[in-house]
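Incident log, support desk, overnight shift.

02:14 A customer reports that sequence design results differ from what the structure should imply. Their input is reproduced verbatim below. On-call engineer (initials T.W.) acknowledged and began investigating.
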């Protein structure tokens, strides 16, 4: 079997004709297999959605209970048959509930990774290598320049800034699903026990993470009492990056603008956003992790999507691995 006969891109997303299902479709379809809850992968309006329990719950939080006509839970390691095609689910290490989807038929196995990272994360199950014939990899940070430093070191810089500037609020921009909770958990691992204040847009998701047994420590709304601007002096406030461009961020006393993202490796991006303390913390694999993962899967062919496809395709060719870019409209870099 040629891989394209088992899985190929369409205008709605990756499609398996023999199984009659899509993976992370960008338009409403009859049957959708969803890798994780970020909006560019998980959309409402499908007739039937299959995903991990956490991804289904997250979609419900973000889109409402009736986000799909019907849902089906998939557990890590679970194997199901859909119209004669074998499908299994494996941890992707990206955010809570994120999964790789392995599709197999007639001796051909293709693994769609969704988004993934290899380093430990206190808020989600770590990545599992799934041997396969074809590996579909993201390439968000698919350039050799992107090497993510150790998380502990980046959080250590935040802790040092809190000590140096006890009179200033520290505003940490972080994507609302996954990154915010991970940053909070990393701050706790660094020994910070004080209340962390969060933007209202993060409350439901943080509550859900805690309900799933993830310890985020004491949290409180970042609400300023009238005439008490200094109440957040020396405090940590976590909010979505979009909130830092509006009046919400101007409430706080002489804030230190921080941003947790793999894109903070690019100094120009940090300057453009007015970031004083860039924190290079990514929920995506860096260059070394991407290339290591390709090797680890043993795949003889690689499809590269949503990111810097050219460099990773070239790396594969230099290592005698067939590769091609897989253009899928609708996937984004997000705020990482």
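02:41 Re-run completed on a clean worker. Output:
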């Amino acid at each position: 079997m040629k891989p394209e006969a088992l899985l190929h891109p369409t205008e709605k997303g990756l499609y398996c004709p023999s199984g009659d299902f899509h993976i992370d479709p960008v338009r409403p379809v009859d049957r959708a297999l969803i890798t994780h809850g970020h909006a560019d992968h998980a959309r409402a309006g499908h007739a039937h959605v299959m995903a991990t329990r956490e991804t289904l719950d997250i979609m419900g939080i973000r889109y409402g209970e009736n986000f799909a006509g019907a849902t089906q839970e998939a557990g890590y390691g679970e194997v199901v048959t859909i119209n004669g095609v074998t499908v299994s689910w494996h941890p992707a290490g990206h955010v809570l509930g994120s999964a790789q989807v392995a599709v197999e038929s007639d001796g051909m196995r293709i693994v769609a990774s969704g988004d993934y990272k290899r380093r430990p994360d206190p808020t989600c199950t770590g990545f599992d290598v799934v041997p396969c014939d074809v590996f579909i990899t993201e390439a968000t940070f698919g350039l050799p320049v992107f090497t993510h430093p150790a998380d502990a070191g980046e959080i250590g810089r935040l802790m040092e800034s809190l000590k140096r500037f006890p009179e200033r609020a520290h505003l940490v921009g972080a994507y609302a699903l996954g990154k915010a909770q991970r940053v909070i958990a990393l701050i706790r691992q660094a020994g910070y026990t004080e209340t962390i204040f969060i933007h209202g847009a993060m409350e439901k998701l943080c509550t859900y993470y805690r309900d799933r047994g993830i310890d985020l420590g004491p949290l409180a709304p970042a609400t300023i009492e009238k005439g008490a601007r200094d109440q957040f002096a020396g405090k940590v406030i976590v909010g979505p990056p979009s909130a830092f461009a509006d009046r919400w961020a101007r409430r706080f006393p002489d804030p230190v603008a921080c941003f947790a993202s793999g894109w903070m490796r690019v100094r120009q991006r940090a300057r453009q956003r007015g970031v004083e303390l860039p924190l290079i913390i990514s929920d995506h694999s860096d260059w070394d992790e991407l290339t290591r993962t390709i090797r680890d899967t043993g795949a003889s062919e690689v499809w590269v999507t949503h990111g810097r496809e050219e460099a990773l395709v070239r790396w594969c060719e230099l290592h005698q691995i067939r590769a091609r870019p897989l253009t899928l409209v609708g996937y984004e870099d997000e705020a990482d």
